[in-house]
Amino acid sequence: MLKRKTTGAARRASIETQQSGGTIDRRTFLRGSGLTIGGLTAIAATGGTVTAANAQGAIANAVQNIKSVCTHCSVGCTVVAEVDNGVWTGQEPGWDSPFNLGAHCAKGAAVREHAHGERRLKYPMKKENGEWVRISWEQAIDEIGDGMMNIREESGPDSVYWLGSAKHNNEQAYLFRKFAAYWGTNNVDHQARICHSTTVAGVANTWGYGAMTNSYNDMHNSRAIFIIGGNPAEAHPVSLLHILKAKEQNNAPVIVCDPRFTRTAAHADEYVRFRPGTDVALVWGILWHIFENGWEDEEFIRTRVWGMDQIRDEVARWTPEEVERVTGTPGSQLRRVAFTLANNRPGTVVWCMGGTQHTNGNNNTRAYCVLQLALGNMGTSGGGTNIFRGHDNVQGATDLGVLSHTLPGYYGLSAGAWAHWGRVWGEDPEWLAARFQGIKDADGNDASLMNKTGIPVSRWIDGVLEDPENTDQPNAVRAMVLWGHAPNSQTRMKEMKTAMEKLDMLVVIDPYPTVSAVLHDRTDGVYLLPASTQFETYGSVTASNRSIQWRDQVVEPLFESLPDHVIIAKFANKFGFADRFFRNIEMDDAETPNIESVTREFNSGMWTVGYTGQSPERLKLHMANQHTFDKTTLQAVGGPADGDYYGMPWPCWGTPEMRHPGTPNLYDMSKPVSQGGLTFRARFGVERDGDNLLAEGVYSAGSEIQDGYPEFTMQMLMDLGWDSDLTADERAAIDAVAGPGTNWKTDLSGGIQRVAIKHECAPFGNAKARAVVWTFPDPVPIHREPLYTNRRDLVADYPTYEDRKFYRLPTMYASIQAKDFSTEYPIILTSGRLVEYEGGGDETRSNPWLAELQQDMFVEMNVRDANNLGVRDGAQVWVEGPEGGKVKVMAMVTDRVGEGVAFMPFHFGGHFEGVDQRSKYPDGADPYVLGESTNTAQTYGYDSVTQMQETKATLCKISVA
Ligand code: SF4
Fold it and tell me: What does the pLDDT read at residue 61?
């Protein structure tokens, strides 16, 4: 952790003193006079355009304290920025925030340098004859825009790929997805594809919504904490506050399952090491003991779960002996884990990318869900699946639909989904449809790419390199826009280099140049556009627990950077659709959409997930009154937001006027729906194989329907006689959509939701969770060996999938697994995060406070492997993957990883196969720390449902460099 400050208590008093206009301590005086290091750096960073205030003047103008939210991980820690005459001079963690309670990790403590960073991209640039040349924004938008319109004319809109970001705020994310729609493509995506897409798909298809069910704070109530494939001590450090509170207060055992003994494992009561890529086998091994001993919650299963019998049949084969053969974990240990979970309820299950980034990642996430369903740990405080998201707004960008398979709010791409958003946008459906390219489908019928999933970010390189004859779009991708995306967070970087070189145009929009600026050997056709950070603009951001927070603007955009929504507006103007695009949105000026107005537009359409009740006014009220919220329940106790849950975690049903408080724990039937209670969603019909899919005689508190029920439609209100509760305006809005066929998702008035909740029913129905997802390739989650496996003895019993085409692209499985690479590449390679850095690491490796902490890219290898290979700790080694990519890194010899397993962090970039690329960055914009990307050595492999990339279980060989 960084230590730049005096004790928190003392500093806190200092801020309060300033706010009340009282006396000023010595540090405040120094800060005000511009004599601190931070003050001088800030002035330097503005290019000298800001004049240092004299001491007397600065003291007279009290330092402003402005609240924002950390832009790194999804915990959502409040940052209090101290701003003096427009210069960001200092920062403190928010003490009132229920999420961070005055704590920050190293990354959060260093965000001022993220904004003021001297290594930022300072003005638009393009590469001309191999040199970076400064250009104006006007020239950049003109040249890029003309080039894109030419490509659109020649090859169709799908030949331009719009890759967005989890770094957008909600308003920018929403505009970005809408922008792709107006451009006429579904080739739009963001980081969620490669971090938690298998979670979203697995969880949403089990019980309704694809998100963390409870919250960091609710873990205070957990009696056991089961963490698998997650390392929150490094990836979500402040979350440890909440986990350790449960450990200390409730004596809750912490069980950590991970192939690597992580810093989180160091806090565990029980550490379970297992072979990478065997999560399903491990979980079924635990469940085997639960079923064997009758420790499951039979009544919960009977009333709220469908398909558990089919799970029992699969679990029966996972005897302790078979589990040990596949996972390497002794049966006796898993019996102890099962006993602990059974005797400490409710327990929570936490997972991250160790579970999700696999070719069978959706099987893993569903197995975790089934474990919780079997234990009856769902829909209860202290239980749930606490799925820690990655970037600060990856939850929000997912919800707002920056994805190639859906529109905002998970509406999908069907005609009905487009009709819904067309109504919200006030758009002419024919105009919108004409923006997209038509194709012949597999049966030779006319179809539109409007209704076809686009290429996911994990596969964009195949969109460029694959012969269009083999794809489901007419032409290859010719222009790539990487907007807030680190390419080194993706696998197959050698092929990515080739793809970047094949493009007509590469556009990078980011506060930092990123590895996209240097990975390729292009001499022309590359543009770098400086985006502002979230500290230079304002708007809403969704934390992992579904709470939405409001950031205020800390400073004006630095250098020549522009906020994302302004850049979107520039392109909309260039492409000639700005008038239509912003028709319902107020503009602060011709190129600045008003953020609150954008919030209100998505409020008016996001009925599916309840992003409708959180108006800008309510969000700001919560932020201003953080201190009134209980630190465990997240509910305001008195004050202006009395009864609301902090940040109104979605679903926050109905209109803002309805004042729904938000839903702190999903599917918790102990509360009325009007007060944040919920049932499992009726999303999969009402009957399956003759079985009732609706809940059996159970319902949320106060429900007037005392049994399971389907999702609400206008027809259902009429059948119940509740339609008379609608106002005339609501009735008119419902009739304007589809009359009796209008449902809770498409009613733009919110009347159906309001009336359902008036009778304490969940608008989306009351159903069973499904343990078996019959629409997925593996309805019952099963173990499948990784594509690159060194356990050839298991391939016959647990083969991967057959090769198939989906998301427009042919995708290989069996054809890779058929070949044995394990003799030449005997070591399992996995990857993960470090506390000092975030994502691809460009921002954090450009931050002097963080760069100082971790300067070398490394590979962790086991002592026995190192000795057998003649590798000494600290030596340089080559790590080479079976597809030919190799990296030269420092060896860290450690028992953190087991024998036969190697680990590399994924935040490094700027070296490529042993060659330092520093000279290729624009002058002064190279990160302080460069290093090899693990993903240069990482290989092919994609989840069978979502195209998530496999980064946790491939093979490599290691040799002395
Ligand atoms: Fe909090 Fe995460 Fe930021 Fe660290 S990185 S301060 S845990 S939000």
Answer: 61
Report the candidate in 598, 705, 603 with the shortest Cα–Cα distance to residue 660.
Answer: 603
Residue 510: strand pairing partners: 530
Atom of ligand 1 nearest to the CA of 70: 3
Q: Indicate if the pLDDT at residue 686 is higher than 80.
A: yes
Rounded CA separation 270/226 (Å): 10
For residue 281, the CA-to-ligand 1 centroid distance in Å is: 33
Is any atom of ligand 1 closer than 6 Å to the C-beta of 175?
no
Measured from the Cα of 106, ligand 1's closest atom is: 4
Q: Which of 68, 69, 77 to mutate to test the pocket of ligand 1 (most atoms within 8 A of CB)?
A: 77
Return the number of other C-beta atoms located less than 10 Å from residue 414's C-beta.
13
Give residue 213 CA to ligand 1 midpoint distance, Å.
20
Tokens of 951: 């980064």
The model's pLDDT over 411-436, given as tens digits with 9 standing for 90+, comes to 999 999 999 999 999 999 999 999 99
207 to 349, 450, 606: CA distances (angstroms): 15, 28, 19
- 106 in contact with ligand 1, CB cutoff 6 A: no
Average pLDDT over residues 101-116: 93
Six-digit token string for 795:
């391939």
Q: Which residues are 439's β-sheet partners?
A: 447
Q: What is the mean pLDDT of residues 621-626?
A: 98
- Rounded distance, CA 265 to CA 273, Å? 10
Signed CA dihedral, 188, 192, 197, 203: sign only: negative
Q: Is the CB of 834 under 6 A from ligand 1?
A: no
Span 354-360, mean pLDDT? 94
Other Cβ atoms less than 10 A from the Cβ of 825: the count is: 22
Strands 691-692 and 687-688: antiparallel
126 lines ligand 1 (CB under 6 A): no
Measured distance CA(63)–CA(323) in Å, rounded:
61
> Do the beta carbons of residue 791 and residue 704 sit within 8 Å?
no
Specify the DSSP element, H or E, that contains 281. helix 279-292
pLDDT in tens, 157-210: 999 999 999 999 999 999 999 999 999 999 999 999 999 999 999 999 999 999
Cα 427 to middle of ligand 1, angstroms: 40
Which pLDDT value is given to residue 2?
35
CA distances from 103 to 78, 79, 548, 824, 839 (A): 9, 10, 19, 47, 21
Mapping DSSP onto H, E and C, the string for 866-888 reads: HHHHCCCCCCEEEEECCCCCEEE
- What confidence score (pLDDT) does residue 442 get? 78
CB of residue 517 inside a 6 A radius of ligand 1: no
If one counts every other C-beta atom within 10 angstroms of the C-beta of residue 445, the result is: 8
Q: Which atom of ligand 1 is nearest to the CA of 93?
A: 6
* Residue linked to tokens 């390392």: 231
- 107 ligand 1 Cβ < 6 A: yes
Q: Return d(Cα 396, Cα 960) in angstroms, integer.
A: 44
Band of the pLDDT at 117, cuts 50, 70, 90?
A: confident
Position 14 scores a pLDDT of 35
CA distance 893 to 866: 7
In which band, very low, low, confident or very high, does the pLDDT at 15 lie, cut at 50, 70 and 90? Answer: very low
- Kindly give the distance from the C-alpha atom of residue 72 to the centroid of ligand 1, in angstroms, as a whole number: 6
Going from the Cα of 907 to the center of ligand 1, the distance in angstroms, rounded, reads 16
Beta bridge partners of 886: 880
- Computed over its alpha carbons, how large is the radius of gyration of the chain? 27
Q: Which of 626, 468, 443 is nearest to 543 (CA)?
A: 626
Q: Considering only CA atoms, which residue is closest to atom 1 of ligand 1?
A: 77
- Strand stretches in 712-786, DSSP E: 769-770
The reported pTM is 0.93
Q: What is the mean pLDDT of residues 827-840?
A: 95
Cis peptide before 651 (omega within 30 of 0): yes
Could you give the CA distance from residue 169 to residue 542 in angstroms, rounded to a whole number? Answer: 8
H helices then E strands: how many in the chain?
34, 36
